[in-house]
Design goal:
This protein starts with 7 loop residues before the first helix and ends with a helix. It has about 170 residues and is mainly alpha-helical. Helices cover about 65% and strands about 0% of the residues. α3 packs across α7, α3 runs parallel beside α8 and α6 crosses α7. It has one domain.
Length: about 170
Amino acid sequence: MQFDLESPFLKYLDPSQENLIKTSYYLSQQFVDKKHIEDFSFIVFPMAKAYEGFLKKVLLDLNLISHKVYYGRRFRIGRALNPDVSLKQRDKWWLYDDLTRMLNEELAQEIWQTWLQCRNHVFHFFPDGGKALSFDEATGCLNKMQDVMEATIKLMKKRYEEKTNEN
């Protein structure tokens, strides 16, 4: 598993988010040989929390949410970025189409799928068979979140440079 302390996505985060990510990677190193553990979700939790904060910051920086919403407690990433929200429920808080327009469809879908698989499905308990994560699945989530954050930062930087060059 590759973790680069100089990665641009880390510089985008606030210190508390950066520490959450470092905690997940630290846990992955500490438990690499502990295959007897049934569920490694605990490795993913800190980074998933940081990923959610990252997404909120992206939406703020793209002017899709206000500072008040960013710092508030009511905004829900899962609803805002869900491409499957019914047409009747798509209101000003449904931002998937805006994110697609500002980034691209492929990255918006990756952002959503990563949130769904590495945050939502990991955090929630399902009585009819919640899924325990193997060590490889947990570290796969870490890598996936890192890859999506890096791709998002790279594209946002490119869009910013294109906009700057137009002016």
